Amino acid sequence: MTGEKPMVPDRSPAPGIPAEPAALLDVDGLSVRRADGHELLRGVSFTLAPGERLGLIGESGSGKSLTALAVLGLLPAGLSAHGSVLLAGTQIVGARDRRLDRVRGRTVSAVFQEPLTALDPLMRIGRQLAGPIRRRRGLRGAALRAAVSTALDEVRLPERVAGAYPHEISGGQRQRAALAMALACEPDLLIADEPTTALDVTVQAEVLALLNGLVSGRSMALLLIGHDLAVVADVTDRLAVLERGSLVETGRAEDIVREPRHPYTRALVESAEAFEAEFDRLAP
Ligand SMILES: Nc1ncnc2c1ncn2[C@@H]1O[C@H](COP(=O)(O)OP(=O)(O)OP(=O)(O)O)[C@@H](O)[C@H]1O
Question: What is this model's ipTM?
Answer without folding.
Answer: 0.97
